[in-house]
């Protein structure tokens, strides 16, 4: 959820390769998030404009808030227009073929998990670059990954799903803690982002299979 | 939705005139948007404070988000206090005379359309000044014109109207494309803003008369 | 709702003392606001993550928006991590002992009023430091004190309470006007913040006892 210059910059021999991979993952996640926004809009009987707005907000909302919070303005969406086009393409696809897209449910879950992991590690990287400390960086990573979906839910008039059930933000937090531990152990960021993103994706996918949830308070 | 120094700056012999006209249009639009926010608050049985907040948020919310996104902080509302006073005046008018104001329905629609056109072209001008490209600038213009109304709807617990029906944001997009075409053809901004704003206003008014809507997906 | 360096800086012999007192008040208010967010989350049957998010958003949301609006980024939450820890501690307390916490209703109201007063005067101080004028500064103070609670209500799917009834934001406005009057009379900020915060707290507490409300429009 960010332009290529935001990715970790410590040198490594396979740098060009891994930035490209992270960028592809980032766009995959953007697409999946946009699809989830567009599907929500279809269900709420919004018109074409509403579908495109919910697609875009869900996909780029988290990264935009992240950039505003660290003072990196104009935010990434204005510096790399690709994210807009991916979001709008996803919205149009859902508009025309939403029955077909919704049936690809498992594929969407996997892509969504990829987005979750990628957005988290990019958010953490940006936080560390802007020197806000480990705690703040993990917070920023979780926000990058989840704020877009929260805005989607608020705009469709519902209480954000992420606050209610499933292991979603918790997967980001766990991945963020792994990122911090590996960084303290001096693992280079180029490798760390992949391990930590993979951890987020794995935790998210396993939690779906196992139907895990966070505890709720006893009432 | 902006201070006078934000308006297009390329020289023209009637510059002082057109900046003043745009500023008057801007304040008219601010007033109309504030009235729509205040009326929504009255319908939701909010108290005086709620009415003033919804008036202000609807009127200046879009421009404030625009300024934050391009890094122009403190935003325009803190640099030209007139927008606050217009919003609060509109809110007080609705508080005391809301039956009378609501009956001026057609006048409010026209003023709202003027606001829509004016906010769009000012947003685009700001975007181009901050060098975010045509695509980003049109996006910023549409957001300047529509984000305040979306915040109004979210605060009153409803799904934003602009996402559901009517030609509203679409009129801004059409006007934005006209702005971009004319700018590529080297029309001076001082004239361009008027043509493009007029296009937005015309499209909006015609769409109301004709009862136009955007397509919805087949379910 | 701010780091210690944000507090009024004009010299006074008891400076260290009053900054510490204001900081303690600030943290007390943060705790009370976080508790109100966490209790709302429990009532909406959110999970542990939702409780922690609503606690944090309610407690630090207003100050974060304030900092973004004046361009002080990264905002205070990333510069003094104490606010995070207080919010999360409050959230965990409510998660485990919410019945016990809710029964301390009067104490919570008093702490909430302390937060209201403290957040207001800190917001005004920040506004004056960033030179946005008295009117803008009072606006910023009220927003610092009330925006977090509004975000809490939107996230739980409800129309913000502050827009509907009770003397809440109005107490902030009254305190803000007192702050402005005393500042014009050249009262040193170190003393002014205490008088004005006390005024907010007193008005809020009296209005609860007397069951005061703002007028609503006649329909």
Automatic annotation (TrEMBL), chains A, B, C:
Domain Glycine transporter: 24-98, 110-182
Localization per Swiss-Prot or TrEMBL: Cell membrane
Major place of residence: membrane
Keyword flag Endoplasmic reticulum: no
Keyword Kinase tagged: no
Keywords for this protein: Cell membrane, Membrane, Transmembrane, Transmembrane helix
Similarity comment text for this entry: Belongs to the UPF0126 family.
Name of the protein in question: Uncharacterized protein family UPF0126
Organism: Flexistipes sinusarabici (strain ATCC 49648 / DSM 4947 / MAS 10)
Organism lineage string: Bacteria, Pseudomonadati, Deferribacterota, Deferribacteres, Deferribacterales
